[in-house]
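Q: I have 46 residues here and want to know how they pack in 3D. Can you give me a structure?
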Amino acid sequence: MTLNIFFISITIKKRRLSPKEIAHQEMVVKLYEQNKDRQASMYRMM
């Protein structure tokens, strides 16, 4: 009889964003919302 045991240890750390990364993320979200609104308005026109 063989008993194989495999252990994995996972460590998760919260990543700190720089001000530049925060500004970039906000711009991405803003552009995503604009595109979503544009797509919705085009859908309503059809």
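Q: Anything worth noting?
A: The chain has one helix and no strands. The chain has a mean pLDDT of 88.
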